[in-house]
Amino acid sequence: QVHMIESGGGLVQAGGSLRLSCAISGRTFRNGMGWFRQAPGKDREFVAGISWSGGSTYYADSVKGRFTISGDNAKNTVYLQMNNLKPEDTAAYYCATSNPSYQQRVDQRALYEYDYWGQGTQVTVSS
Question: Closest Cα to residue 97, out of 19, 7, 28, 20?
Fold first, then answer.
């Protein structure tokens, strides 16, 4: 069974930083992981991903240059470092594991390409 526990969310002023963590059990993050977010009344959207074996990372245009996804082998944990936060970044953030049927893809941005999801952690950015 695969489980993820996210942490690190909170309230921050615009321009500030947060680091989200996603601790994984039952699967290695090196199979591919993603971060998504969902604001109230909006669809869940892709934020950042790290490919199979951690060989590459990729980002939504809205966060490129501000967010960084990384992984820690020893802790089997994926992080999302978020800098220069904006009010429009306010959302619940979710980590997800790559569906083995698609994990060979270098770039995975669709919900169906992921199979297990964390419970989410809230990020609120005040202006």
Answer: 28
Cα–Cα distance, 12 to 65 (Å, whole number): 19
Residues 6+ apart with CB under 8 A from 116: 2, 3, 4, 27, 96, 97
Residue of 64, 86, 68, 52 whose CA lies nearest to 20: 68
Closest CA to 71 of 20, 7, 18: 20
45-85 pLDDT per residue, tens: 999 999 877 679 999 999 999 999 999 988 999 999 999 99
Characterize the bridge pairing of strands 3-7 and 33-38: unpaired
